């Protein structure tokens, strides 16, 4: 007997077809079954969802039901826990279940027919297993205490460990204990960025065997992603390593989730369903009875607040997380000494101060490595004409095009518009146009010139290498450059934040932050938190090998060139005192009722004109007072975004704030219909798109 199936298909939350669609099937199918269904003029992949499967003859005869086109029988249905995760994410982040569900599946899976999938499953059927893991390393007393607490409690746990304290070994031994106790268990280990997965995969593969470990991230090819996903879904892969997308991996026997560098903003998705993989990992762990470990040397203030101990004096019951502390480095290594260079005392236009240049020269002569951190790629942020004031503005964005000297182009980092560098000023014809500011290309060139006569201990010239998004575009380039750093071939590494965290560089003894002041006075209230984390993480790359530092008779150092050496952030940085910095920041946020003491969402609109984008938001807000939860919600006026025009599209946003998460969620859920109706009004035909961002990281 044919039945009617509720099926999740990839439709946006605010579309006319949002939610589950109903299809006719020749037989009942278990929830979680993957099916191919007609959708408009094309055929798409769908997921049979929870709900009644009524007989087809009970359908309303006025509606023409379409038939399921095919069933992917060879694949086990996606589990109830996975569907619950998707449903929660869709509900909390104001998206449609099908939109989240289908985005979480491998792209190639959406294109395979039943026969193609069967062939793939036969070909990959032998994956999994692996050699038994070797005996773990002897843990330090701090590691042993953390491992014991992890074994005895349910968590979630916040592993607050100094850079170089051995947090990765705690992750490894936690996974090893889990797999030894339960031969069918699975573990999920997440890192914030793709470039951190190769070294972590090597360590896990060395410990557990390559066959037991798979990776999941957007840098993989579609066949690779599908192979890893199928191994995880079948339970053959015991350990899944991945970036934020891996939080949606189908792991039927998940028992442990590790979120390394949990503070990193890369865990927040910025397109489509704007979810936080860290927060979903905590929810998933609670839902599936899996232990959750959040690790960082500089935890997010939200996690730090949630791990606060009880306070009997104030009656505070404490946070939901349990804080585990590992303040010491492996091998009795010391944290880097912080040196502040007051750039007000340096000659105008100084790139690197004379004392810093001297320190770098000493490191090269002794065979040590140094890292120069500048979180701005390109040669210079802008080209400028001194005669008429022309700057290299992007004609399609409210931003400047960056000068890239290596290929003589002006490139917009927002829309990608690229042109050759003009021979003269386009406005007045002045041939003397010059770069303003500095990027990693310019710093690399400056250092290469400054140390052209500097030799390594073996007499060879010093080697300067730059690692940023431009230098690693070619596949395999990042791995080659990192390998050169690890084997000691590089003397000075110039890079952006992509090399400032997570990497275990053994020979670096000096890290220098060149231009960090921009975040000190940003309008974004999270900017100081991000800057402190970046500097602490970057400094943590220095002196990680205590034996090497002792043999060199060196002192690991973090140099910071700043025009504001008296700022309180740098005072806490000099002491490596994250708790003091966090206490001050949390006190400021509590006074302003900002997260974690308040809850926020942003509604963003894009249109051909700024007026149209703001008018849409203001009209949608006009109906807000009548919605559920509105009495505890504040809608601020619509304003242009920080970069208000990208690719000729004007962008505006409206901040929505509440002291209650539940009230904000009730309001946003009810507001969806108002936003959709406002969008459909004739007055707002000029609107291109709108989106809701719950718990935004940038305002």
SSE layout and pairings?
Elements: E1 3-8, E2 21-25, E3 34-39, E4 42-48, E5 70-71, H1 80-92, H2 97-103, H3 114-123, H4 141-152, E6 157-161, H5 167-181, E7 186-190, H6 197-208, E8 213-216, H7 222-234, E9 239-242, E10 254-260, H8 277-287, E11 291-296, H9 301-306, E12 322-326, E13 337-342, H10 354-366, E14 369-373, E15 382-385, E16 402-404, E17 409-411, E18 418-420, E19 433-436, H11 440-450, E20 464-467, H12 477-486, E21 492-495, E22 508-513, H13 527-539, H14 546-552, E23 557-562, H15 568-574, H16 578-592, E24 599-607, H17 610-622, E25 634-635, E26 639-646, E27 649-658, H18 661-680, E28 687-694
Parallel strand pairs: 6-11, 6-12, 7-9, 7-10, 8-9, 10-11, 13-23, 14-21, 14-22, 20-21, 22-23
Antiparallel strand pairs: 1-2, 1-4, 3-4, 3-5, 15-19, 16-17, 17-18, 24-27, 24-28, 25-27, 26-27
Helix pairs in contact: 1-2, 1-8, 4-5, 17-18
């Amino acid at each position: 007997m044919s039945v009617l199936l509720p099926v999740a298909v990839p439709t946006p939350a605010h579309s006319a077809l949002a939610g589950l669609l109903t299809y006719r099937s020749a037989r009942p199918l278990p929830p979680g079954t993957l099916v191919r269904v007609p959708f408009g003029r094309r055929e798409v992949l769908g997921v049979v969802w929870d709900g009644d499967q009524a007989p087809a003859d009970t359908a309303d005869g006025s509606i023409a039901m379409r038939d399921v086109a095919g069933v992917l029988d060879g694949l086990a249905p996606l589990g109830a826990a996975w569907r619950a995760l998707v449903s929660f994410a869709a509900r909390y982040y104001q998206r449609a279940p099908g939109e989240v569900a289908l985005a979480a599946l491998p792209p190639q899976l959406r294109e395979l027919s039943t026969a193609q999938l069967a062939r793939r499953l036969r070909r990959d059927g032998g994956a999994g297993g692996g050699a038994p893991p070797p005996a773990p390393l002897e843990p330090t007393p701090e590691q042993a205490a953390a491992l014991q607490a992890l074994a005895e409690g349910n968590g979630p746990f916040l592993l607050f460990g100094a850079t170089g304290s051995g947090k990765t070994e705690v992750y490894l031994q936690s996974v090893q204990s889990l797999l030894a106790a339960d031969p069918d268990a699975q573990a999920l280990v997440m890192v914030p960025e793709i470039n951190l997965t190769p070294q972590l995969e090597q360590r896990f593969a060395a410990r557990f065997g390559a066959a037991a470990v798979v990776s999941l991230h957007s840098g993989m090819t579609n066949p690779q992603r599908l192979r890893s996903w199928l191994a995880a879904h079948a339970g053959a892969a015991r350990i899944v390593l991945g970036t934020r997308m891996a939080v949606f991996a189908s792991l039927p026997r998940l028992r442990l989730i590790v979120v390394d560098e949990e503070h990193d903003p890369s865990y927040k998705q910025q397109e489509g369903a704007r979810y936080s993989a860290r927060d979903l990992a905590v929810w998933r762990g609670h839902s599936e009875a899996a232990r959750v470990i959040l690790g960082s040397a500089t935890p997010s203030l939200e996690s730090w607040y949630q791990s606060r101990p009880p306070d009997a004096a104030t009656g505070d019951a404490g946070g939901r997380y349990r804080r585990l502390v590992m303040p010491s480095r492996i091998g009795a290594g010391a944290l880097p000494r912080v040196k502040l260079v007051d750039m007000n005392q340096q000659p105008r236009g100084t790139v690197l101060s004379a004392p810093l240049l001297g320190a770098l020269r000493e490191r090269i002569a002794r065979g040590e490595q140094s890292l120069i951190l500048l979180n701005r790629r390109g040669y210079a942020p802008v080209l400028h004409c001194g005669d008429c004031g022309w700057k290299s503005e992007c004609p399609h964005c409210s931003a400047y095009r960056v000068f890239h000297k290596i290929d003589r182009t002006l490139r917009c980092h927002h829309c990608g518009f690229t042109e050759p560098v003009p021979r003269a000023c386009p406005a007045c014809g002045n041939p003397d146009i010059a770069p303003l500011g500095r990027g990693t290309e310019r710093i690399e060139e400056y250092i290469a010139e400054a140390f052209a006569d500097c030799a390594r201990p073996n007499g060879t010239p010093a080697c300067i290498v730059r690692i940023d998004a431009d230098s690693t575009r070619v596949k395999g380039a990042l791995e080659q450059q990192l390998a050169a750093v690890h084997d000691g071939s590089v003397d000075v590494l110039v890079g952006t934040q992509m090399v400032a965290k997570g990497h275990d560089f053994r020979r670096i003894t000096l890290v220098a932050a060149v231009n960090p002041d921009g975040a000190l006075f940003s309008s974004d209230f999270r900017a100081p938190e991000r800057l402190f984390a970046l500097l602490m993480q970057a400094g943590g790359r220095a002196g990680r090998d205590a034996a090497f530092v002792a043999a060199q008779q060196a002192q690991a150092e973090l140099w910071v060139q700043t025009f504001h050496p008296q700022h309180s952030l740098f005072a806490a940085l000099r002491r490596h005192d994250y708790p003091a910095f966090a206490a001050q920041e949390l006190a400021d946020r509590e006074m302003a009722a900002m997260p974690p003491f308040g809850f926020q969402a942003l509604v963003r609109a894009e249109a051909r004109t700024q007026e149209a984008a703001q008018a849409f938001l203001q009209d949608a807000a006009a109906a807000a007072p009548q919605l559920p939860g509105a009495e505890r919600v504040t809608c601020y006026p619509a304003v242009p975004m920080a970069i208000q025009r990208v690719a000729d599209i004007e962008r505006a946003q409206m901040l929505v704030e509440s002291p209650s998460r539940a009230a904000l969620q009730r309001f946003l859920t009810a507001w969806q219909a108002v936003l959709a109706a406002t969008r459909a009004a004739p007055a707002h035909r000029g609107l291109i798109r709108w989106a809701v961002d719950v718990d935004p990281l940038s305002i």
